[in-house]
Amino acid sequence: MRYELIGLRMHVERRRSKGVGPVQAGLLLAALLVIAAITVWSMNPPEPRDAAGVGEFSAQRALEDIAAITAYGPHPTGSHANELVKDYLIQRLESLGYKPEVHREFVTKASWNRDVLVKNIVAKLDGEQPGPALMITAHYDSVHSGPGAMDDGAGIAVLLQIAEAMAHRKVRNPVIFLLSDGKELSLLGATAFVTYSPLAEQVAVVLNLESRGSSGLALLFETGQGNRELVKLYADVVDRPAASSAYCSFYEQLPNSTDFTVYKKVGMTGYNLANIGTPQHYHTFLDNLDNVDVRTLQHLGDTAMALALGLADADLEGMKADEDSVFFDLFTRVLVHYPQGLALPLAIVVLAISLVAWSRLGAVQPDRPGLNLVVGCVAFVVSSAAAIGCALGIISLIRPSLPVVLESGIVEQSIAASVAIVSAAAVGVTAVLALIRRWAGIAGLWGGALIWWNAAVVACTIYLPGMSHLFLFPAAACALGLLLLTFLDPASSWSYLIAAIPGTVVTSVLWMPYVGMFSQMGGTLMFLPAVPVALLASIAGPLFVEQRGLAKWAPTVISLVVALVATGITFWTA
Question: Could you give the domains of the chain?
Fold first, then answer.
């Protein structure tokens, strides 16, 4: 009996974790750094082209049109400068062989309680078939406070090159070019078009070109309802896809609007493209020719040109499907897309795998696996709150030193400030995980986090299906990793690395781009980068804090040092 008891004790001890070594932690950190480097590289727009062949876009040529438009300075609707811009654009379209018309209409601006005269410029290219038309549109008016180089001089310049590319080629579908006026006055030009123009009834698909900043990739951030075929075409023709149904779902929750909002309300479908980098230039005097990122212009032009040429020969009647797609790009090189109807079955599969992994938790941590799971569940909440709390703390410290653009109220958030916020979030989340780890164990931390990941999958699948992939695939990878761990030797440090790799890689690939994107939000949303940090740490963090002795505090200490240095640089350069 004594020997049996000793044997049992030895068996239990053999199956307990002895901690993770620096080699395993270093390899996981290396994987994170590699994915981070690839993510940063993938978010750089393409280099501009000086010359372009037929059907290709040249950013350098587009700059000539932007220079001509911005030479008149700010040109809001009704101003003399806007009249001069209108005349220039009419001459440009005529030089390309078109016969542009100016549609003058009075539209009521409710906040002013009076009618405003808008002057839309419309040109049409006949197709080989008289069927539904493609409309390519951008607005040529600017705000009072800036010359509108990117908003929306860039969109106009891209539209003109597309018009030039199509001028002497045969296309299947009629193409309408709408250079709208009055966008900055509550979308008055778009409202006038759908209300008064007989051409509006012919439009089936809209390609709208916008901007909210002066740099970054041209994102597909909104589509019409029933976008299944639209997404397929986008995936087929765009070389550098920068798109996600998550952008669409997130944008729908915001009070923002563009001309596309008007077209969407009357039943038109299509694409809405815009860049959002350097938002502090938006609607200010800084939105000028000198601040235009030519690479951004190139990506906007490449994307719009590819879509325009593809749509010009597509079956436009079939572009509005009965179903939406879930879609996202991988490093702006491949667009992954699948029917939204698959989201629920996939969520059920992930939940089933998770249930099996949870039921086998005792194979890794035989002592109180249920309690470990509950503690791990609590650890996710507390660590996420700590990440956001630390981020808010550092924001309250550095924000007074950051300049604010008077015209827009946007905080100019430097790279150092963004690094400080992200690092502070990492301090909070890793410190909590290191403290709670002894009561949950590594498998308990993973299993507890997996509960919340599954909850997010279910919630998004029901309410925001366009965002479901951001939780579905990380949850699936984490569940498979945890399940795999239950079949490996828990006394081996390599078992935990093998289990951590799938979830860490998938979560990093999907969520790291949002760290950079959220860092550009500014204002009351400056804390948002803490969210992807907390989510990624819930999967990668348990392995780091499983290190032996004081080594488990290494992530917290390193993050703290980085946060302090970045904060110092922020103050120094303010």
Answer: 18-43+342-573 (no CATH), 59-331 (3.40.630.10)
